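Appendix B, record 7
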Amino acid sequence: MGKTEMKDLIIIGAGDVGKYIAYHFSILPEFRVIGFLDDDKSKLGNYYANYPVLGDLTYLKQIKEISIAIGIANPIIKQKIFNNIKYISGLEFPNLIHPNSWIGEKVTFGKGNIIYPGTMINYETKIGDFVTVNMNCAIGHNCNIENFGTLSPGVNLGGFTHIGESSFIGIGANTIQSTKIGSQCTIGGGSMIIKDVPDGCIVVGNPGHIGESSFIGIGANTIQSTKIGSQCTIGGGSMIIKDVPDGCIVVGNPGRVIKKMDI
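Structure tokens (predicted):
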């Protein structure tokens, strides 16, 4: 057997997802990581996961052919980056599927997907373009995840779940069978989705409750059956143990209202 020809790979984004790619796909025979691109000028010339930051996105204009991995978790930013570079010739967007994932029969992938170890994807599921599926996710049969979606670690999707374009699913969130989540939605960590979610919604809790135009910070949690109102801001790490009225800013553990806005 002939030796596998290695392809040079540049990672866009010198953050957590980007470093995961650098550490774990540089050991595979298909790719040779040569470095990162990042718009944060303070990172230029520095090393992350043993590889240098070569420049920003304009660096791609001087390369004839290169494989690209968009190492960004935020779906909206992923989509924006692709829209900025899709007209540059010579770019290839391989699927980076870790060998310790399990892929069922007749599962289809678009391009530019990142599939972490421990992931299980059951039969006849469709994965679009630039979808990130983090560690230990379980995706049921006949699911459909549209372009630019991100699934955080430990997400469980019942069969026939449909996730719209550019939606973000938080750590340990779950769906029952045949649930549809719209485009540009955010599903909070640990949420249980038991009914369809319209486009552009933020959902938290068990069962999931929609709070229009609310923001949920990193690592925030709710107890079962908690309701968060519209236009609320929940600080990172907060523990919500009772209902939050519309227009509130909540921080702490347990969560306490520090400001209420007129809406």
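Remarks on this record: Residues 12 and 195 are 35 Å apart (CA to CA). The longest helix spans residues 75-85.
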